[in-house]
């Protein structure tokens, strides 16, 4: 049961991140929260990165939903587990990058807690289901 809720919460956070990336792609002034936080509005060349992250986060969120049997996206359970492992490793990097390497206070103090929470929940999801 804890694995179910961990996966569900991870999916919700990941879909939220995808919406953030989508809004940044279309010029919303949230650039200080992502990608090093050096631009309030991302320049057009960097918006491609946000658009790519939008699609990646949608896919990862759907993998979490398949992991907890809410949605079936057609992949075998081993592939879904690999996607979640890769995302968990990405979250570990995000904790270090957002928490220690970024110069943006908004990225550090807003995005790092999300990365920590999702990292813990993702590990629980991996070992509980």
UniProtKB/TrEMBL annotation:
Spans through the membrane: 7-28, 48-66, 78-97, 109-127
Domain of life assignment: Bacteria
Alphabetical UniProt keywords: Membrane, Transmembrane, Transmembrane helix
Protein name: Uncharacterized protein
Taxonomic classification: Bacteria, Bacillati, Bacillota, Clostridia, Eubacteriales
């Amino acid at each position: 049961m804890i694995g179910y809720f961990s996966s569900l919460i991870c999916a919700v956070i990941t879909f939220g991140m995808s919406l953030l990336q989508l809004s940044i792609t279309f010029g919303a002034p949230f650039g200080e929260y992502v990608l090093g936080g050096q631009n309030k509005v991302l320049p057009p060349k960097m918006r491609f990165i946000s658009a790519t992250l939008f699609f990646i986060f949608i896919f990862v969120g759907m993998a979490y939903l398949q992991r907890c049997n809410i949605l079936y996206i057609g992949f075998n359970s081993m592939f879904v587990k690999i996607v979640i492992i890769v995302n968990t490793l990405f979250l570990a990097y995000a904790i270090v990058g957002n928490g220690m390497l970024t110069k943006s206070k908004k990225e550090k103090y807003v995005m790092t807690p999300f990365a920590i929470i999702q990292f813990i929940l993702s590990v629980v999801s991996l070992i509980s289901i």
